[in-house]
Amino acid sequence: MKENLRVLVTGAAGLVGAEVTARLAAAGHEVTALVHDNPVLVRNDGTRLESGAVTCLSGDVTKPRLGLPEAAYQALAAGGLDRIVHCAAITDFGLPDEVYQAVNVDGTAHVVELARAGGVPLVHVSTAYVCGERDGLIRETELDEGQRLANAYEQSKFRAETLVHKAQADGVRAAIVRPSIVVGEERTGVVRDYKNIYVVLKLATEGRVRSLPGQYEARLDLVPVDYVADLITEVTHRFEEAAGRTFHAVGAPLTLRDFSDVMAEYPPFQVPRFVPPTSFDAQRLSRRERLYYERVMTLYESYFRRRMTFDDSHTTGLTTRRAPENGQDFLRTIFDHCLESGYLGVPPTGGTEAGARPDGTGPHATVVAQGTDSAAVAHGTGSAGSDAIGAGR
User: Fold this and answer.
1) Would you place residue 51 in the very low, low, confident or very high pLDDT band (cuts 50, 70, 90)?
2) Chain-centre distance for alpha carbon 373
3) Region 213-222: what's the mean pLDDT?
């Protein structure tokens, strides 16, 4: 029987954060959810956490002492916690560098300060894509391998994880969980927020972007949100075993060829053509297609040429919970739910007025303006409304 823990969860309004909070509360732990503007925690299936299940604490990870009143901060630091689970992050792409610095880097530094002040074990949620544009096997034990980081999001998550490693060297006890691309629930495909890779799938399957620079051998790793939350919860429960280690929360990798083959099984879907990057010329696209490519797809295109595999030996050694083994079957589950919910499968009309316009105002618009709700493909799991404490996970 697990001991009852006092746990602070940052980013508790985010997709992963809400699921972790719900699991910890269901296990009987005393959970404090750090929130900013949104005290209502909504789970992946759209249900709210019951009132009284958790204690919501208004704060802001971007500020020293988490933006808390001195008395509240001291209560946490002076023996008021047994664990900190740091889920808070901005995962949208195309935002100013200072936003990533404030939330992902400074926010982590402020959480580390609390962990150090109170001697509290820390579970830090990073991203598998701190590996940047490396190819080949990415080990859980690796971080700084001289890799090129593709964007400001990856750079900020790399710097944040580096802070945690430095804190460990100074005596802070921590474990790190690195999710890959977080998507819907394993069995049903249900997802609360159609963001990150869903944006790419929508534009591609509706034929709004028909040609993209990429390699058919490139790999994208999709992982169910419930698996990620289960692993974070397991690491929190079994911290004594997990301390000092990093755990990849990853699924079965899919090549772009796999994506294309599965898309072709669905009559409503258009299937994009991937062109070798050295041969791709955006100027050959139609004006409308070029707008979508330049404003949205350029944010993600580096992921269409990476060929990595994530080692998860630490993870499989800790838990018997397994991610889906068949990536194509899981992708079908994702597509099926998107069709059932109406997110995918609505064909575009001949003009931009009836569909998602390049200015982001059409009735089916999801993300068309650079930096507007375009969550990171790399494990982006932003909350609707993007809680200012960085509850974008």
Assistant:
1) confident
2) 13
3) 97
Strand order, beta sheet including 83-86 = 55-58, 30-35, 6-10, 83-86, 122-125, 174-179, 246-249
DSSP 221-278: EEEEHHHHHHHHHHHHHTHHHHTT-EEEE---EEEHHHHHHHHTT-TT---PEEE-TT
Per-residue pLDDT tens digits for 238-249: 999 999 999 999
Give the Cα separation of 225 and 181 in Å (integer).
9
- Of all helices (H) and strands (E), which one includes residue 339? helix 327-341
% of the chain with per-residue pLDDT over 90: 83
The pLDDT of residue 50 is above 80: yes
Tokens standing for residue 89 = 């992050």
Beta bridge partners of 55: 32
| Residue 390 binned pLDDT confidence (cut-offs 50, 70, 90) | very low
Place of tokens 């990853």: 250
Question: How do 219-224 and 253-255 pair as beta strands?
Answer: antiparallel
CB 216 within 8 A of CB 272: no
Q: Please tell me the distance from the alpha carbon of residue 189 to that of residue 233, in angstroms, as a whole number.
A: 21
| pLDDT score, position 356 | 38
Q: How confident is the model at residue 348 (pLDDT cuts 50, 70, 90)?
A: low
Contact (CB, 8 A) for 132 and 154? yes
42 near 65, Cβ under 8 Å?
no
Which token pair is 354?
A: 């009836």
Closest CA to 377 of 208, 236, 201, 125: 201
pTM of the model: 0.90
Are the beta carbons of 367 and 291 closer than 8 angstroms?
no
